[in-house]
Amino acid sequence: MSEDSLRSEIVKVGSLLYMRGLAHGSAGNLSVRLDDGSILVTPTNSSLGFLAPEQISKVSPAGTHIAGDPPSKEAFFHLAVYEERPTAKAIVHLHSTHAVAVSCLCHDNSADVLPPLTAYQVMRVGRLPLIPYYRPGDRKLADAVRGLAGEHKAMLLANHGPIVSGKSLQDAVHAYEELEETAKLFFLVGNRPVSLLTCEAITELNDVFPS
Question: Which residues pair with 37 in a beta bridge?
Answer without folding.
Answer: none
